[in-house]
């Protein structure tokens, strides 16, 4: 601007942000009648301030889930012709909640996170940051859009060691556990798998719930069946996996009741048996191993003959009272129970027969008295006469057959001697002579 009266030249605006290095001014002088030819004046501007400039006016940046607090996210790039200029950055967030999760450094413009980024919990999935950079004279702006990207997070066991103590049972029985503790922040559907080494086939696992069950009947009473199984359980979301460990201790169950070898026992004793003498022995078997396989015997308390006998721990029956009040040939019965410690039981019926006085004495071997056919006197009462009758019958039949054969032989010999008219010898040393009168007369010879 030129003062027309004084010819003074001045600025019409501030040149602080002027970027043109100089101007040529053409000045003419006039007195109102005449005009002097114009002269040029060159004005040079020194120490020009170049404004800062962002490399891009806008950018989209992906922020991955799982970015930790304090992590660097993005560094905007700025250029400035004044290499020595320092810059100050400022930011405006849309939505304003962006200020809670992100920060822009005032000196460098670096964008960092203020919180661990969790896609499932952060309320907004995109934030706009309008960032300005100033050198105190000029400034520039850029729009940075931060997009939160969901990533697949692995399932994680928060508890990695479990133990179960189920009882032996049939195939398909659920073990009701373990109750796994795990997280999957994505809420993905997970699958479970089981590895028990050599015992893998003994257990099944529900792939959705992880519930365990016996794949077949599990019986510790079978030789070779393990009472403890160690397994690895794997959880997977089809991309990531994690592992936990299970110790399974199977307890023995009282799954077998005692069984008597015979449903009925019969023992023979004399009525004169002394108190404390053995009557016989019953035996039961329990297929359970361990303490459940131990058997105890007792006579039914309601049995009419309860007080007369007692049974010990190995099933041997003994006389408890005098039996002389009973007659020979009488029969008493007892009901004996075999019970294991789990109160499973079986019973058998025992008959006690009082021998007649003529019965042969019995030897006691293993405590059970057995009578053979010939040692039981009543059998001999009919067996001996029968044998005598059979013997006489055999003798008579043999004699009859022998006599008949001799008669036939004599007739044949007589017929032959008649034809040849020769003496006929007999078995007693006599000779018979054939005569024409058809008669035979014996001769000595």
The whole-angstrom Rg is: 62 Å
Mean pLDDT, rounded to whole units?
A: 83
Level of helix content?
10-25%
Low-confidence stretches: 361-369, 426-445
Distance between the termini: 205 Å
**How are the strands ordered across the major sheet?**
4-11-10-7
Number of discrete helical segments: 2
Structural class designation: mainly beta
CATH domain fold name of the largest domain = Immunoglobulin-like
Which keywords apply here?
Immunoglobulin-like; 5 domains; 4-stranded mixed beta sheet; 2 helices; mainly beta; 31 strands; 445 residues
Topology:
Elements: E1 22-30, E2 35-44, E3 53-54, E4 58-64, E5 72-74, E6 78-79, E7 88-94, H1 98-101, E8 102-104, E9 111-113, E10 126-134, E11 139-149, E12 156-157, E13 161-164, E14 182-183, E15 191-195, E16 203-205, E17 212-214, E18 228-236, E19 241-249, E20 259-260, E21 264-269, E22 278-281, E23 284-285, E24 295-299, E25 309-311, E26 316-319, E27 331-340, E28 345-354, H2 377-420, E29 424-425, E30 431-434, E31 440-443
Parallel strand pairs: 4-11, 13-19, 21-28
Antiparallel strand pairs: 1-2, 3-6, 5-9, 7-10, 8-9, 10-11, 12-14, 15-18, 16-17, 18-19, 20-23, 22-26, 24-27, 25-26, 27-28, 29-30, 30-31
